[in-house]
Each structure stands twice: as structure tokens, then as C-alpha cells.
Amino acid sequence: MSRILVAEDEAVLRMLIMDSLEDEGYEIDSAVDGKEAFDMIQAGQYDLLIIDHMMPRMTGLELINAIKDLPGREQLHIMMLSAKSQVTDREKAIEAGADMFLSKPFSPIELVRIVGEILQ
Fold this sequence. Notes:
120 residues; 5 strands; CheY-like_superfamily; Response regulator; Bact_response_regulator; phosphoprotein; Sig_transdc_resp-reg_receiver
């Protein structure tokens, strides 16, 4: 089964994402900020990162830039979550290397569907 890292500083939203994906059988790890996520990515192997745009210690965009040259990065999919949903925010995420941008708030059903499509 696919292994996913969720990096989200809002505890309630982080738990909602994790519970929704665990119910579908995915193996989930979590981080409370970008720096913790970066350390976990260096130590582990993930198929998908679900990362918040605005996090303490390292933003989602900074995290994407920090992992660009890591070994195995080409197999790692990235979904950016953000309450900032302007076209320019989406473009910056995609240009940085995100495969998908999902605006908050979102439906857990939509999240599960998109994750399934990304990991197929």
C-alpha cells in the first residue's frame, strides 16, 4: 500500500486528512511543520506528500524546493493544500513542483478521490 506524509500545522485538519486516508488503507505519517516534514522525508520513503502551503519553520513551497535534489524525488508525488486559492498561488505551487493544488476548505471525499488518481 502507498505511504503518505501529511504536513499540516492545524491539528484538526491534519487528523481529518489522516483519518480519511487511513480508512482507505493508506499508510500515513504526519508532521506539524515543514521542517519536521523535511526531516521525515530524508529518513523515509514516501509515495505522496500532502503539504500545507503556510506552515511554521518551513512553508510548503520552501519544502518543495528543499527536497528537489533528494534521491528518489522523481517518484514522489506532491499535493499542496492552501487557503490561498488565487490563480497565482496555484501557479507558484505547480511551478515549484507540486502535482496537484487543492484549495481549503475541501471535501474529504474529494481528497480521497484525488489521492487515488495521483497514486494510480
